[in-house]
Design brief:
The chain has about 90 residues and is of the alpha+beta class. Helix content is about 25%, strand content about 40%. The protein is globular and about 30 Å long. It starts with a helix and ends with a strand. The N terminus is likely disordered.
């Protein structure tokens, strides 16, 4: 019985780690507006495959470290995810 629980937990851990790895598809976009005080950035982006969203212009949250590397008109590649229910830039090239 303990063996089955261990195997089940291992399978769950592998599935979760595979899902997290898949959630890192970079999307091309262009920064339209940066609001550093609010921690937000408006991006005109291609389809967000991992979030099943079509191409559009959207506002995302971003941490201070990322915001300082962003400028209006800049072409970027980024990864977005839902963090605490908010669309957030979690990686930037």
């Amino acid at each position: 019985m303990m063996y089955l629980k261990t195997v089940g937990l291992t399978a769950l851990a592998l599935a979760l780690s595979a899902g997290l790895a898949m959630a890192e598809t970079y999307t091309k976009g262009k920064i339209k507006k940066v609001d550093a005080k609010a921690g937000k950035v408006t991006i005109i982006h291609e389809e967000l495959v991992d979030l099943d969203m079509p191409a559009m212009t959207m506002v995302f949250r971003a941490n201070e470290e990322m915001i300082v590397n962003m400028a209006e008109g800049q072409d970027i590649e980024f990864v977005a995810a839902r963090v605490d229910g908010k669309l957030t830039v979690i990686a930037l090239k």
